[in-house]
Amino acid sequence: MSTGAPLACRRAAVLSDLLQQKFDPDTAEANHRQLYRILQQAILSGELPAGTQLPPTRLLACDLGIARNTVIQVYEQLGIEGYVHTGVGRGTFVADTAPDRIAGFDLITAPARRGNDGGSLSCRGKVLLENAGAGKRQWGGFVPGVPDVTQFPARVWSRIESRLWRRLSPEMMSYASGGGYAPLREVLVDYLRTARGVRCDPRQVLITTGTHHSLHLLTHLLADFGDGVWLEEPGYWGARSLLQIAGLDITAVPVDEQGMNPGELPLRRVPRFIFVSPSHQFPLGSVMSLARRRELLEYAKSTNAWIIEDDYDSEFRYGCRPLPSLQGLDDGGRVIYLGTLSKIMFPGLRLAYMVVPENLVDGFALGLMELYREGHLAPQAVLAEFIREGHFASHIRRMRTIYSERRVTLIEAIHEHFGDALPVIGSAAGLHLVLGLPGDVDDQALSARALAHGIVARPLSLYYCDKRQARRGLVLGYGCVARDEIPREFARLATVIRECL
Fold first, then answer.
1. In terms of pTM, does the model score above 0.90?
2. What percent of the chain has pLDDT over 90?
3. Tens digits of per-residue pLDDT, 167-211?
4. 50 within domain boundaries
5. Domain span including residue 252
6. CB 284 within 8 A of CB 295
7. Is residue 223 part of a domain?
8. Which of the 8 DSSP states describes residue 144?
């Protein structure tokens, strides 16, 4: 016998003693998990250096008072994961896994542009988070843009869902193709033609998981880094964030009572995109005039710019019918229409749609599949039946009445506390209004104080690109606060407002 064999046996015996000290047979942890954890941690920490021979399975099992098969199982798992290697007739040894000895990698020099912290954010990631507008509170008074999900006819939806699941085909449980569930696209065309004046066929309708998703696809397929985009000032922070991190050059275009007004700025560069909400400007609520719409369409047609029409909540217009879409006036194929079901149904459904010009249909349908591997076919099928059976239109009519009553109640509460001292802006439609504040009031500080009292009142200045020109105010949503709670909730907010005036 060689002199190395007794030495290896002595080392194995010492290691066996060490393992006995760490192994606790009375713990609730399973024996194989405990032994695996002890050996793994010892190898990773260097306590068991490369080349160390582990005790024979029979010896270790006897010393620990456990089954030999348990030790064999642990050794095999460690071998599969690369911690140890076994030689027939030679034993089990700790593998050489030290990072500084992995061939082909230089582990000394770190990427200079990210500093010493290898996990630091990218430049665009920092910009996104520094300018983030999303709030943690997504329910209650006065969260803007959120519908009352408690009023949704969940039993009707559940009944349709149960019926469809009983006869769901394998294809419906796989990835989507062609832009989404065909019957849903067909019923949406009928709805959009009647309610919004949109002119399209089912091929032009693509189902997405939200307006952000639609914008993400648009920037990938139609824009290059550095292209220009016009955004409403003030405007939707979510669109600004997405377009900004896509590398687009943003020009903030002022909004007046007729909507976006490009004539206010010396705009020398033709934009790739023009992002507008003409039927109910967000957040100020103005409606784009027919003259301004025609001017914008002619400009896009003559310059090959794309108009992105965000029609986010036009179903809820009070006192008159919803206004026709900008897309319905377009005879040049330059408008891409974005719609969402979040405000009508419930945000957690995560279903929206976009209507693209005919020449973009095939490319967008393929891009949707290639980039996102879309699914959600079962919820799309439920929604198609929900619309086809008339529940969709009925729900819109009912919610329009409920939201109209809440709107009136909130306006009455504002007048009760402040009379005409603070203006109410953009209250003719949607799920929110803007309460104007004097120019010397810090609306962001006021918003923070209100949040500390459990009230969400988003600062109007947050929606401006140029904070120096920002108007002061509070964006107040009344969609998800019950009518009888509005006076009490606003009274609490009014107390905070008076402290800041």
1. no
2. 63
3. 887 777 777 777 899 999 999 999 999 999 999 999 999 999 999
4. yes
5. 168-388
6. no
7. yes
8. T
Judged on CB neighbours under 10 Å (0-12, 13-18, 19+), 99 is exposed
CA distance 111 to 118: 8
The C-alpha R_g of the chain, in whole angstroms, comes to 31
Q: What is the DSSP string of 190-229?
A: HHHHHHT-----GGGEEEES-HHHHHHHHHHHH--TT-EE
Q: Are 157 and 382 in contact (CB under 8 A)?
A: yes
- Token digits for 110? 């770190």
Among candidate residues 339, 371, 388, the one where a domain is terminated = 388
Query: DSSP strand E in 218-350: where?
Result: 228-233, 249-256, 259-260, 273-276, 306-311, 335-340
Residue 183 CA to residue 200 CA, distance in Å, equals 15
Structure token digits, residue 15: 């290691």
Beta strand 205-208 pairing with 91-94: unpaired
Say whether both 340 and 254 belong to one domain: yes
Is the same domain home to 446 and 319? no
The DSSP symbol for 244 reads: H
Buried b (16+ CB within 10 A) or exposed e, 13-51: eebbeebeeebeeeeeeebbebbbebbbebbeeeebeee
Q: Which CATH number fits the domain that encloses residue 22?
A: 1.10.10.10
**How far is 49 from 51, CA to CA, in rounded Å?**
6
Based on the fold, state whether residues 307 and 224 are members of the same structural domain.
yes
**Euclidean distance between CA atoms 300 and 317, whole angstroms:** 28
**Structure tokens that stand for 460 in this block:** 């109007």
Q: In DSSP terms, which residues pair with 275 in a beta bridge?
A: 231, 308
Residues shown for the chain: 501
What's residue 2's pLDDT?
46
For residues 309-327, give the mean pLDDT.
Answer: 85
CA distance 231 to 392: 32
**Largest alpha-carbon pair distance within the chain?**
103
Determine how many CB atoms are found less than 10 A away from the CB of residue 191. 17
Phi, psi for residue 2 in degrees, rounded to 5? -70, 160
Strand order in the sheet with 424-425: 424-425, 432-436, 473-477, 458-459
DSSP string for 42-100: HHHHTSS-TTPEEPPHHHHHHHHTS-HHHHHHHHHHHHHTTSEEEETTTEEEE----GG
Q: How many CB atoms lie within 10 A of CB 295?
A: 16
Asked whether residue 312 is assigned to any structural domain, the reply reads yes
Q: In angstroms, rounded to a whole number, what is the distance separating the alpha carbons of residues 115 and 23?
A: 42
Q: Is residue 105 part of a domain?
A: no
Q: How confident is the model over 332-356, as pLDDT tens digits? A: 999 999 999 988 999 888 999 999 9
Looking at the fold, whether 453 and 472 belong to one and the same domain comes out as: yes
